[in-house]
Amino acid sequence: MKKSTVHLPREESSISEGKRFLLFMRSHPGFTVGLVIVVANLLMMLFGPMLAPYDPFEADPSSVRLPPSAQHIFGTDTNGMDIFSRVIYAPRIDLTIALAGTAISLIVGVVLGGYTGFWNNWLSTLVERVADLLQAFPPFVLAMALVAVTGQKIQNVIYVIAFLNIPIYLRLVRGDVISVKNRTYVEAAVCVGGSRAWVLFRHVLPNVIGSALTQASVSIGWAILMTSGLSFIGAGVAVPTPEWGAMIAVGASTIIMGEWWSSVFPGLAIVIAALGFALVGDGLQVFFDPTKRN
What we know:
Elements: H1 17-27, H2 29-51, H3 83-89, H4 91-118, H5 122-135, H6 139-150, H7 154-180, H8 184-191, H9 196-232, H10 244-252, H11 261-287
């Protein structure tokens, strides 16, 4: 007798990750706007020199402090440099510092957070106390002091940004590791003979890295603000390098005379970039947390 075959209906959970991400974008317009801003800034970072209509480093004495016009969309600054060209070139500096600094802090913070959460010894306690000490200082004041000591170079600003962000990832990952290290799958991995280091990197950290990656997007926006702030007071990227904070500093003295464009357009670029990364960070937090999805 021929047996009949039963066809089970497909579950909606089999939807691909790509399609689920597109559906998430449609239902969360704030995340979509942030993603567009982030992608636009990344494109300017990669192709800024090709998109700029003028050389962002070239000064033209005959075109000093010109208002926005068809020839110079954002006007020119006190040195005759085209502001639009410098604004779209600046992500090559600001985003490079923010991305590099955040990447270093993410890697170091995740490793230290995993160690302090998985082991309970004098070294983990010492690392935690050092992190507490760093977070006791105002970040901007500490960053200004560190840049003054190490030197006004782009790589030093990157190291300072990374150094200030490490305690954030350390505490975030440490808390997540403590919450999962006693779960059954971790104990099973230890019982089959896996070393504690292997269990940490193979089973524990992959399950807690999502929150750190979400925080990274917010940290990038914070790093852009920190870099611009340091450059504005003359402790970060040096003039005449096209950097948003330094551009605001150059045009700040002319605002009182009604020449607002030298500072307003770089300032808007900072606000939009930081907002974009913050929106992406908030959206990723919801996307990676099933309890928060609609």
